[in-house]
Amino acid sequence: MSDAPDVVGEIIRQWHHERPDLDPSPIGVFGRLTRTYQLKQVRLRSLLGQFDLTPATFDVLANLRRTQSEGPKTAGAIASSSLLSTGGTTFRLDRLEERGLIRRTTATEDRRIVHVELTPKGADLIDAVMTAHLDHEVTLLAGLTATEVQQLAKLLARLEKSVAATPEALPTYDDVDLPPA
Question: Is the pLDDT of residue 168 over 90?
Fold first, then answer.
């Protein structure tokens, strides 16, 4: 593993020094999650660039491939089961169709419904990309044992549930004394 400085650990240390009345320990979780995500995204973009894909186009192709046996999907169904808006999905579908990776067909029962499916070229590409992607993720996890990977996945699932169960509205801090503007 790298001997890179522990940036998050240093931030926590600095907060302990400047504000010993605060518990900055959540930064150890959320700061590291953010930093890990950012580092992973840089590496993912590099990998996907080798296949002339972006994270968004990869997401669309992977979405179609992992549900391919269920048949074609609508753009709305792709958007609702991915990280894209319907407008963003339509834009990506246009690009993927231009490259011959997906095909759109109008439903015979209702011409307003458009189904999307992978072409053989698209299926071959996403199969190759997924193999490379998962191999790469295994490499990124090389610093952990198999048991640690399983433990981390379980803890992250619990954290996700905890965050999801928290109301979206932030509490108000009317009792905080702010300096005059």
Answer: no
